[in-house]
Specification:
152 residues, alpha+beta, Arc Repressor Mutant, subunit A, 5 helices
């Protein structure tokens, strides 16, 4: 993976760009701007994989190195989201059971889960669109297109 930089490419299926932030060979951000940053380059191997995914090739992106800088509890939730396979979904209660140390009956745990989903810095790579009843860090139209693409 490229060591560092901002990369973006327009994808007709999403009717917008996918923009990646990369530092020290790890992806630190994913966003979906209408117009990318001026200094964003179009060529990155991960953008090629995203293009194939958006054209219908199943990919969980589970081998992509990510840098998550957030509270440990939120990181635990997002790591559990990453375990949900392409084309499958879960609800927040199921996610609570998947994430070590979380209880779906505990209101504080459920708040942490929803906060982690809402503040996910890497939507698509951490597929919060696979959580049926949770917030997504992707714009609503992108979330729906990703869900549709995976038959959810």
């Amino acid at each position: 993976m490229e060591d560092a930089g901002i990369y973006a490419r327009e994808f007709p299926y999403l009717d917008r760009h996918v923009q990646l932030g990369v530092a020290q060979g790890k992806v630190i951000s994913v966003s979906f701007p209408q117009t990318p940053d001026d200094d964003a380059g179009p060529d990155h191997p991960l953008l090629d994989r995203i293009e194939a995914y958006l054209e219908g090739t199943a990919d969980d992106f589970d081998d992509v190195e990510l840098a998550l800088t957030m509270p440990t509890e939120q990181r635990t939730v997002l790591e559990a989201v990453r375990e949900i396979p392409h084309g499958e979904s879960a609800d927040c209660g199921q996610l609570a059971r998947m994430a070590p140390g979380f209880d779906p009956e505990n209101d504080d745990d459920m708040i942490t889960i929803r906060t982690a989903l809402d503040e996910n810095p890497l939507p698509l790579l951490i597929p919060d669109h696979r959580i049926r009843d949770g917030p997504s860090a992707s714009p609503p139209d992108v979330e729906q297109k990703l869900r549709s693409l995976e038959g959810l």
